[in-house]
Every structure is written in structure tokens, then in C-alpha cells.
Amino acid sequence: MGRMHRFLIASAGALFCAAAGVVWHSSAEAADYSPPCVPPPQCLQSTPPTMANPVPQCINPPAPLCAVPYQPVPVPVEEFAGGWYLRGDIGLSTQKVGSLFNVLYNNPGTTVVPTGFTFDSAPTFGLGIGYQYNNWLRFDITGEYRSKANFKGNDVVRFPDLGGTAILSDNYTFSKSEWTFLANAYFDLGTWWCITPFVGAGVGFSYNTIHGFRDDGLGFRGNGDPIISIANGADASVWNFAWALHAGVSYKASQNLSIEFAYRYMSLGDAITGDLIAFDGTNTVNNPMHIRGLTSHDLKLGIRWSLDDGYAPQQPSYRPAPAYYPPQPVQQQQQLYVPPPRPVYQQQPVYQQQPVYQQQPVYQQQPQYQQPVYAPLQRRG
Fold first, then answer.
1. Which residue has the higher pLDDT, 379 or 226?
2. What's the pLDDT tens digit per position in 85-120?
3. 119-163, pLDDT tens digit by residue?
């Protein structure tokens, strides 16, 4: 059992590592993409044109714009292209048996009281191929090997013997394995954050094999004498109708890879041993042991790999990344300088010729008057 559980744990670890490697590789490729930068669309401020420098110069250019891929909000798309897929599963089975039967139990006065039947857990390994019909429905066909599970059981048998009743405690040991082939249908219940719960059912056949059957009996005969009996049955196999019910969740790790964890209830039908022969080689009647009502509760871990890109739901379209342009000089396209219009001057007024004035008349010199000279006054008297 210890080696079996270590094997299952190692197998599950390897499966998870493979899935994680695929997801990491996809993420690394996306991280290597560097958005290109494009030249700025315009100049924020430029110098005004002058007579000395008629071409305006950009003095405040904006920073280059780096392209960022457009990521719209995904819109659910109902259209779905179906596709084929492969699947692989490992699991752990916990099996039960309904009852054991031997023709000797039909002898008159014989009663059998079971006291306990148990199976050890055992690993399972399966492969299959399937088809995703749409967003909700898928089908697959699987083949599975269910490795040997050890059985231990006990019952108490009472039967008439030597005028009394003999009591015999039988201890049974054997191992059981199966090859199962199922056709399954699954109904996916919707997807949230890449997680899809599902239910399903399957029908098919199981090839059940019993290995190393042994019956060790210990008791007392009708007269009180002890009984020790040992009987062995040869290995034997038989086909049976089988059916299964599934429930689980799947995680979409990438466009092609889905990881699945599921529970399965399975009915395996019956199994049978070879004819039981006593340790001394005697056998009075053909009495193989019938193991009836085999069922199993299984836990499975599996992967599904899509063979067609159309298997995944249609992804929302993204705008293409802008093309890369080499850096341009930090200057807007030169504007054509248009000189201002020349002023229109009015025509100078034409002044009339100054009139020619006649020469001033020459006046004769004014006569100069002489001041009269008066004789001095004489005093009378």
C-alpha cells in the first residue's frame, strides 16, 4: 500500500508539472512582447515665424507614444466549433462487494452470515478519445486498467453434521482486477474563471478477473471435533455489463489543455473464481465462488488535449498592434511661411503752384520835416 500511494502521488505531481509547464511557456511568450513606440502626433508649442527665421521651430515636443495592445472586455460567444480531443486519467478506487455465493450454500439446513468484506484501494489508469459537440455537450470512449485490489472477508457457516450442527468460520482472501470500456456523455454546466463543472454517465463492459482465491476455514463439527479446512480457486475472468456516473470540475489551463478532477461511481457486475479444491486435492462438486454486486467509488485526475484549435470557444478579437516607426526629429512638419501683405499707401497729394505775387511798390522817401526854431521870449517890463 505504501508503494502504491507513493506511485499515485508521484504520477499526480508529474501530471501537474506538465500542465504548469504549458501555462508558463504561454505566459513567457506573452511577456516577451514589447509594445513599439510611435512618434508624437503634434508639437505642443513652436516659435512664431520672423523675417530672419520664417520656419517655426518646435520648442515643446510631447513624449513618444508607446503602443499598448487593445484589450476589450470579452463578450460571450455562443458559436462554438466542435473538435476532437485525447484524454488520460489516473485514479484511486475504493471497491465494495455485495455478497459471496457458493453452491454449497444451497444444501438443506445451511446458513451463512457474513461478518465483513473489505477491499484495499487500488490505482486506475485510463486513456480515451472524445469529441466536444458544443459548449455544453461532449462525448468520449475510454479504456481503463484497474489494477489488483486485495480482498479480505469472513463469514460464519452453519450446516448439519453428524447428528448435530457444525460451525465453520471462513476467511477469504484474493485480489481482483478489471479492464473496463465505457462510452460516456458529459453535460458541461457553464464556465466561470476557466472552471467548468460537469456531470455525466457512461455504459459499457468490464472484464473482471479474480486472482489467488483462498478459503481458510476453522470450526467444530457436530460432535465437537475441530475442523480445519483450506480450499483454493484457480484464476478466472468473466465479462459483465458496467455503467458509471460522473461529477467533477475541469480547469482550462490553455486553449488546448484542460485539467480535470472528478468523482465516479461505477457498477462492475459480478466476478467468479475457478472451481474450489481442498488442500488434499479432493472435490466432490463443482463449486466456484461467485463475487456478486461489485461497485467502486473512484477519484480521478485527468487531462484533456484538444486536437483542433476550433475546440476552444472563440476568443474575442483584438486590434492589431500599431506598426513601429523609427524615431523622427523632434519637430513638427514645417509650415509654409506666408509673408504679411504689404501696406497700400495713398498717392501723395498734388499741390498747386504757389501764386507769384507782384513786386512791392517802392514808396518815395517821406519828406523830412525840420523842426522850426523859435526866437527866445523876451520879458516885458
1. 226
2. 999 999 999 999 999 999 989 999 999 999 899 999
3. 999 999 999 999 999 989 999 999 999 999 999 999 999 989 887
Q: Residue 186 is which amino acid?
A: Y
Name the residue among 300, 275, 296, 298 with its Cα closest to residue 97.
Answer: 296
Domain edges within the chain: 2-23+83-306
Topology, domain 2-23+83-306: Porin (2.40.160)
How many CB atoms within 10 Å of residue 29? 9
pLDDT recorded at residue 222: 84
Determine how many CB atoms are found less than 10 A away from the CB of residue 35.
Answer: 13
Q: Which cell numbers in the block locate residue 266?
A: 461505477
Written in H, E and C, the secondary structure of 180-198 is EEEEEEEEECCCECCEEEE
Q: How far apart are CA 38 and CA 48, in angstroms?
A: 27
CA distance 138 to 200: 9
DSSP secondary structure letters along 91-143: EEEEEE--EEE-GGGGSTT-EEEEEEEEE--EEEEEEEEEEE-SSSEEEEEEE
